[in-house]
Every structure is written in structure tokens, then in C-alpha cells.
Amino acid sequence: MSDPEKGPPTIGVFDSGFGGLTVLQSLLPRLPRARFAFIGDTARLPYGSKSRRTIARYAVESAQFLVREQGAESLVIACNTASALALDAIQDAVPVPVLGVIEPGATAARASSKTGDVLVIATDATVQSHAYATACKDQGLRALEKACPLLVPLVEEGWINHPVTAEVIRIYLDELATDANAAGLNPDTLVLGCTHYPLLRPLIEQAVPNGLKVIDSAEAAAEAAARLFNGRAQPRGVDEAGSTEIHCFATDSVEKFERLGSRFLGRPVGKVELVDLGG
Amino acid sequence: MSDPEKGPPTIGVFDSGFGGLTVLQSLLPRLPRARFAFIGDTARLPYGSKSRRTIARYAVESAQFLVREQGAESLVIACNTASALALDAIQDAVPVPVLGVIEPGATAARASSKTGDVLVIATDATVQSHAYATACKDQGLRALEKACPLLVPLVEEGWINHPVTAEVIRIYLDELATDANAAGLNPDTLVLGCTHYPLLRPLIEQAVPNGLKVIDSAEAAAEAAARLFNGRAQPRGVDEAGSTEIHCFATDSVEKFERLGSRFLGRPVGKVELVDLGG
What is the CATH number of the domain that holds B211? Predict the structure, then answer.
């Protein structure tokens, strides 16, 4: 895929905001020789509460920016909502391979689950699309999905280890357990179907019953991307990312992106460029 | 302002979402003979976390829609963030009188405060603009502002009377009281500087110390609009709103608007029309 004379291949990574930086963080050690162009469509976030039509229009504009302006040779849609509602539209709009986070998440759930029943927590729009339920069904799994709209604002408020956040997680997971019981499911796996949720993983793991395994779609998507774009996944721990090129773009609030982004990427995001997608 | 031959005057009311319906609810009994056109720019909400430039561009598009397409002869900017960051831009862009919510809120705070020190809670963008502090200073008041970014998502989750919401309010108000104390202020008035917050008024009033009066910018703006557009405020309780025409428009999620809107308006919002502002 990459021409040795023209430098490392560019992988475009797209999210509605900063959350997708958790996917980029997982990608870095797996694709150490790639150049990454990340765009957060922060002027129009959050996608989670918007309609399919609007989300598809927004996501296609960001994807086209990455391919046309940044020369991306492949795309990772590091946003569950856009993966759920706009993957087809993006694939139709750009001439490069496109990978979402839903299918890798479902595949990882398949590998984890012994009972065949899984739980998924995500944004409103992702849940309403039933993209996880459909992808899990394709893997022979039964999935019960729940929207947890307060978790993204709690992460963005920085209440990562806060008692209020622990209580909100407990309430959501209790409701989900009750619904699973009522539906006759015996779940053993919980999929984090939003790229903000990995930051809450410690609190979520404290709140889930023993024996329930937590799967991170961001991690799963990065594994899948490494297989797809690299030929083979880099062994974990081989992080040469210090030499990896990362260029971040945002459609609004460059300062906020720079300030919050490092929390998601686990390292400074560097200088963020403002992009006007016209909407 | 109104020509008797062409029917009642149209008042345009604008918000980034549904919150401004609390202002519309306060306007109805005060301007019973008006026709109201309300637009919620739901495709691009929330404005509270976006930059001045982006907010101004979005707000002007909605204002122009109300004036050009709906024939609005006056506008109420029923959104604290847009009032704080885009009032001048809107006034420059449309040839009708424009009223925001900030100045009426500050005027009401002036009427309430005996100590001359007031507290303001609002979104991130409203607070960062210091629009309330400036408007309060013009009234001879000292104001301390605090961003409370979790309150809007809690209202939209429907957790209006929820213990988690009560705890979040307690945390925010405790932090604000500590800051006020450190700044040597002696506040006796709290301004609700976001149109979502009136729905939390019961919980907020339980959380504030005795003697602190809660002022609602939505209510204050409706009073000011009635004086400005009607010549005189209608006496309270004279609600002829059953005969008032209300037309609601949204840039996204018409179903969600219809479902959530009634919570803010205190009555059904009726059929909501989808509008494409092109962004």
C-alpha cells in the first residue's frame, strides 16, 4: 500500500470530537511507521444525539478532507456513532479502504463470550441504530444495547474517578442488568461502544459483576486496523511512536482540543490546526 | 409594530436547542396576541462548548431564517450562549429589534440584590465570554460566574428530580460558594444563566443557602420582551395562549424535539418542521 519513495503511508482517523484519540492511542504502537492525520469535527459534536442523515453528511465531509487534503490512503472511523450510521456513506464517498469500530468490537465480543450473550453501552444514536446488535448477530451473538448519554459529558468534565460518575455507571449498569434478566439473557461480556468510555474503564470494571469481561472497541478497532493496513499486527509493547508523525485537525475550539486531547491520547497532541468544513 | 390588516406580529425566538422553549413559555402569557416562530438549531447543538466565531455564524443563519423565511418583526435570542457571543453579529445581520437574555438577567439581578454581589451559573462558553460579569458591572454589580457543563445533559436525560442531579448541583454550588468567599464577595442572588436550568429550579432552590434569591434569565427576558414588543407587559395570569400561534422549526431530530420540547414548553410543541440551514 505504501510507496517507499514517497514516505510512510498516511492513515486518516476521524471522530466527531476527541474520543477517537483513544483509538489513535491504540493504533500508534501497532502501526509505528505510519503517518497519522486525525480530524475531530468539534464544531458539530456531539454526533450521538443527531439523525442518520445529518451524521452521514458531516462524516463524509471529514472523510473527504482526510483523503483529499491529507492524502490518507486508508481511514479509521474512530467514532461509534459515525461507524454505526455513516460507514456505507463514507465508503461510497472515498476511494480508500475504510474501517469502523463496530465490527471489530463485535468480533472481539465473539472471541470473549462463552455464553453467546453480550451487553453494549453506547450513545443514543449508536444504540438507536442497533448497529452493535446487528454486527453481534452476524457473529452468532445476542446483544442487548443501552444508551448512557451522561458518560461523555462526565468524561469531558474530567470526572474520570469521581463518585458521581461511579454512581451514574452503577445506575446505568443496574438498569442494563435488569433488562438483560428480563430478556432471559446470560451475558458474560460488556462492550464499550463509545470511544470516550475507555477513560472510564477502571470505574466500569469496578461496577460490573464478577465474571463479566469488559471489551474496548477502540482497542479492537486498532487491532483490526493493524491487520488490515500493516499486513500483520505489531507485537504489543513495540512502541516506536516517538517517531510517529501525528497531525491533528479540529473544526472548532483548537485550544480545547489541545487541552482535552492529551487526556484521550495519553500524550500531548501537539499543535492542532483549525479546519473549516463549511457547516 | 403590527399592521392590523396583516394579522398578529411575528416574534422570532431562537435557541441552539430546546432550552429556549422555557423563554417561549414565559413569553406566551405576556404576548398573547403574537404569532411565535421558534427555531432550535438542534443539528449543531450544543453551542456551549463552541467558539465565538462558530456560534456567531450559526446564530446568524437561524436569525436570518426567522426574519427572511418566517417574517419575524422582532427576535428574542433565547439562548444564553448565543446572547453572550453573537448578539452584535445578529443585530448587524437582521433589520429588526433583537433582544438577548443576558441583559434582562443582569437587570433582574440588580433589582434583586441588596449586597451588590451576585453569582451566575451557565455553560462553558457563556462563562468564558464573561458576558454576565460585564452586564452586571454595567448595573453596578459584582458577579462571579461558574460553568456547570453537566447540568444540560442531566436535564436532557430527564433526571430533573434525580439524586445524582441534586449531588452535582450541590458540588457546583459548593465550589462557587468557596470561590465567592475567597474573592471576598457577599452574594445574595443566583442567576440561572442557561435556559435549561429553570427545569432544575426546585433542586437548585433546595441547594442554595437561605437568603440567596434565585433569578431566572428566561423569565427576565420574557418580561423585557413584553415591555419592548408590546408597549406594556400583560398582567401575569392573563394567559390567552390557547389562541396563540406557535410554529416550531428544528435543524435536526424533529422527533426528539417533539418528544423533549413539551418538557421545556410546559405544553405540547405541536408539529415541528425540519429546516436545512446548510451546515
Answer: 3.40.50.1860
